[in-house]
Specification:
CATH architecture of the largest domain in chain A: Orthogonal Bundle
Order of helices and strands of chain A: HHHHHHHHHH
Radius of gyration of chain A: 20 Å
Largest interface: A-B, 37 and 37 residues
Strand content of chain A: under 5%
CATH class of the largest domain in chain A: Mainly Alpha
Number of strands of chain A: 0
Oligomer: homodimer
Largest sheet of chain A: none
Number of domains of chain A: 2
Chain lengths: 218, 218
DNA sequence: AATGCTAACTAACGCCCGTTACCCTGTCAA
DNA sequence: TTGACAGGGTAACGGGCGTTAGTTAGCATT
């Protein structure tokens, strides 16, 4: 099996950067395997065989299989929080670019996150473990769906107040804009499991932004 | 654990109706357990203990754990195919009701399927096993996403030709209408895992239909 | 030179896994 | 009355599971 060496800046759950090469390798390979077979479908032996160490050695790095999973999602959470527009910068950014450009740049930022070879797999894990694991469910519902909708609602209400788009309920606009993208991201991530072409769904995302913008501009 | 006795008309994969009470019980309980812990997270012993038979007796009904899973999705597929509007009835139905009413009725039909206590769990299983199982992936991408988009595209193009809605690309309209619903259904199904309130997301679905209709009527 | 720490190792624990071979009992058609 | 058969049961197979105890080699600090 191919090995991922494109490793991200992983951190331990206490905030310390993870530097030990084998510990990084454990993370990379766990993400790869969990994303394809699910947490319960992968054994410690599967992981350590791939890493090239004995199973007992894994326990020098992680207290349990659960802690390994938590560490992966801890890093995902950190990483996701960076792609949301920060409230305090919002005012300036919104004045300098058009709504259309802003939305297209946001989409590009999101796609960049999903296209990262490691993060793509963690997105897959998130969709996969949601139903089994309450923490993962919360990450999706709060950190992703909830936060994105809230921050977009803010954006739309600013535009409405400034008369840059048609008056409407900002909360509904945020939902209309974002929910299709969530569904399309799901399909996109799914297609990539088999390495199928994602051209159609990527086009769909761009068409959605265009359609949406055409309906809200003054 | 609560037992589901509200069982559907199950069929074997060769089309024969499943009538043996314990075989129905195995299906119901498997669906319950698989939907909460995933296929690999549930053992034959978990299932048979709940049914009240020995594990060897399960093999009087199913050749393997895999066949049990396949039978569940075989029945899901059958059930899903019934909620899509049939092409041949389409013409008559579209003339007699307004676009708004038609869309609201379609949504109600879909929600009824998801609200069925058994089918709700299989929807959850589908989202859960998608990444592990190619067949499930195909059910979602083709039977659900693909078919619904195709049939909606047909509907919109008929309306456009009849001048009942504003001219537009029917394919894009279908996507704009349906994708948000897919995402919202995902959230809806997820919320039901914990028994959380689904009021917000159900409202969101209705608001989406209203918003969408308001943007397409002539 | 001695110390402590990191991270590898061997070996094993007790338990759970899917599945099978075989047996027993009740029902119902011939 | 007999015989097939559906659907229960017992017992066990070989193997995989997560995890732990104890050991050891290499390295940096004192």
């Amino acid at each position: 099996m191919a090995m991922t060496t494109d490793s991200i800046f992983y951190q331990d759950m206490d905030g310390k950067p993870i530097e030990s090469p084998n510990k990084i390798k454990i993370m990379d390979i766990s993400i790869e395997l969990f994303s394809r077979k699910g947490f319960t479908g992968v054994s410690i032996r599967d992981i350590t065989k791939e890493v090239g160490i004995k199973e007992s050695s894994l326990y020098n790095h992680f207290r349990s299989k659960e802690e390994l999973l938590s560490t992966i999602f801890f890093n995902f959470r950190r990483s996701i929080s960076r792609i949301l527009p920060q409230e305090d910068h919002l005012g300036g950014m919104l004045q300098s670019v058009s709504p259309e450009l802003f939305l297209k740049q946001s989409l590009a930022g999101l796609m960049k996150h999903i296209d990262d070879p490691v993060m793509a797999k963690v997105w897959r894990m998130m969709y996969l473990e949601q139903y089994r694991d309450r923490v993962v469910r919360d990450i999706y519902l709060n950190d992703i769906v909830g936060n994105m909708l809230k921050s977009l609602e803010k954006v739309f209400s600013i535009w409405i107040a400034a008369g840059r788009i048609q008056p409407a309920d900002a909360r509904i606009l945020a939902a209309e804009y974002q929910y299709p993208l969530f569904a399309m991201i799901g399909v996109y991530v799914l297609l990539r499991v088999d390495g199928s072409s994602t051209w159609d769904i990527e086009t769909g995302m761009r068409e959605h932004v265009d359609y949406f913008v055409s309906k809200i501009i003054v």
